[in-house]
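Colleagues,

For the teaching module next term, I've prepared a clean inverse folding example: a structure given as tokens, and then the sequence designed for it. I'd like students to try predicting residues themselves before seeing the answer, so please don't circulate the second half yet.
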């Protein structure tokens, strides 16, 4: 059974780059046909899809966040990484990684000076 665990700084200053890691256990991130997604939920709002990286390593992003987003992977560590640049307080949210119905517990990120 695959398990996902998000990690990263809880507080980021405006204009900086947010970097989060999703550590995967119980399955390989290169297993055929799986897509590994990043999703966030701002306070009081619904879920927002950020993007995903495929088993092949190709990444796709939400059009609204594409300019600031990069999703990559470390196959040796079995990790997925999210980078979001030029953050503002509007990027404050709980960030989740997900695969095919399996979700991490999420990590709170607050953007504040």
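(Answer key — instructors only)
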């Amino acid at each position: 059974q695959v398990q996902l665990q998000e990690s990263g700084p809880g507080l980021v200053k405006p204009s900086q780059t947010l970097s989060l890691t999703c550590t995967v256990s119980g399955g390989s991130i290169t297993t055929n046909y799986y897509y590994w997604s990043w999703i966030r939920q701002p306070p009081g709002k619904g879920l927002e899809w950020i993007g995903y990286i495929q088993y092949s390593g190709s990444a796709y992003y939400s059009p609204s966040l594409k300019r600031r987003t990069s999703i990559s992977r470390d196959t040796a560590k079995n990790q997925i990484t999210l980078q979001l640049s030029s953050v503002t307080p509007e990027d404050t949210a709980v960030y989740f990684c997900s695969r095919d119905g399996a979700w991490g517990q999420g990590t709170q990120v607050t953007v504040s000076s």
